[in-house]
């Protein structure tokens, strides 16, 4: 990748012109007799601009100003007048309802400890097809402290080192996809706030270790960080890393919501010698994980792999993450659990709406099951085979606000993972240049010159603030519903507006199974009946009778 250096960057042109203008007009004022006062005035103007640009370059609060001194002020000026412009040119959807509020703004306010309250009423069309709401209670409960919003993972079975996790944690984002400073800030913020940081499939980097925050080590099909010759899973290398006290859980990634069935992608433009060494991949080539694992090929072998990861890690919680695809494949895993008695400590359900640094457009838009559909399916499948109480469920996929958390927890999630929310807290402005290495805020760029814009102590504080304030908002929602903990949320607490202006609860919208129903009465299981019939514990394939 081309090395970037400050003096030759176009983004520093305004500051360069300001400094040059100061010198030129100061010289003209001193050495010419033509219009010395005017030249002196212009020299002062350019000096003020140069001083402002230098201040931008060395201040630590705004990444955009550090990377785009002087030029970034135009952006902030537009942000100041944006509310008036947006109100004047307000766009509407086909039903005449204004577009929803920008969730990114909510994250910024909570990360910066700014007021996140708003005047007037809802901006949603309450009679639109997509409107959803949480029932409130006439007997609200006292608000639970943020510290109480936790869940124990690995609470049953052979796990000897269960983990008490926050109900909101940092979702999987690899070093390489994120910059070193972004990883540092996320992990330091996780340490300060008492929550977990998923490493992503790119391996445990030195920057994950610096902050001392709890880690969930994700292992993908490339086996980065535990990779043997030929790209295979290496048990000894895995055990050596997984035994570290900082790693609290180990997670096997089967698929990612934004590109299920594709494998991870790190473009060659973002691979540095350090990243290549950590991952064990060559320079100058796209780093593409295989679409399938080489360590197992059947549901039973998958469960044996998870059990092996638990054993090699010293008894830490072990599980897997996937985006639901063919329903019989997940039910095949459930059948394998029933037949073998092997169960993961947790399963993370990722939705197709989940984010990514690089994926084909068709995969992002048209492959995989959305989070709430996939989560409801997985939760009820585990209920249907009588194993739900042994396995914790995590949820990830475009979770940003407390309401996002509450509605997936009503559908079965025990905790949530968020990626974009924490990226916004770091200063991400969704420039959508993640795959190029040219991120304007340094969140995803491997270039040290751009990374310096992201000041780790400042952004770590914002990561902690976003987490705490989002959980505070969740506690407010739970208390308003007359509940004490989000674990008490159920599908009947939420309603959504359907066709013909009919409001139905989640319990009516999503099919619910009774405990053990798939074992005792599979024919009565509705949409689960056919995939259950064709699922087998020894194969992911569909098997017709």
How are the SSEs ordered, and which strands pair?
Elements: H1 13-31, H2 36-58, H3 63-67, H4 72-88, H5 103-111, E1 132-134, E2 150-153, E3 163-166, E4 168-170, H6 180-193, E5 196-198, H7 206-210, E6 214-219, H8 235-242, E7 247-253, E8 265-266, H9 273-279, E9 287-288, H10 299-312, E10 318-322, H11 327-340, E11 346-350, H12 361-366, H13 371-384, E12 392-396, H14 402-410, E13 415-418, H15 420-426, H16 448-451, H17 456-480, E14 494-497, E15 503-505, H18 506-509, H19 517-520, H20 529-534
Parallel strand pairs: 4-13, 5-6, 6-7, 7-10, 10-11, 11-12, 12-13
Antiparallel strand pairs: 1-14, 2-3, 8-9, 14-15
Helix pairs in contact: 1-2, 5-15, 5-17, 6-17, 10-11, 11-13, 14-17, 15-17
Overall morphology: globular
CATH-level-4 superfamily name of the largest domain: Aldolase class I
Query: What is the level-2 CATH architecture name of the largest domain?
Result: Alpha-Beta Barrel
**What is the CATH class name of the largest domain?**
Alpha Beta
Arithmetic mean pLDDT: 87
Proportion in helices:
25-40%
Describe the main β-sheet briefly: 8 strands, parallel
Q: Tell me the domain tally.
A: 2
State the strand order across the main sheet. Answer: 4-13-12-11-10-7-6-5
Unreliable segments of 5+ consecutive residues: 1-7, 84-101, 119-123
Number of helices: 20
Instruction: Output the CATH topology of the largest domain.
Output: TIM Barrel
Structural class: alpha/beta
Strand content: 5-15%
Number of strands: 15
First and last CA, distance: 55 Å
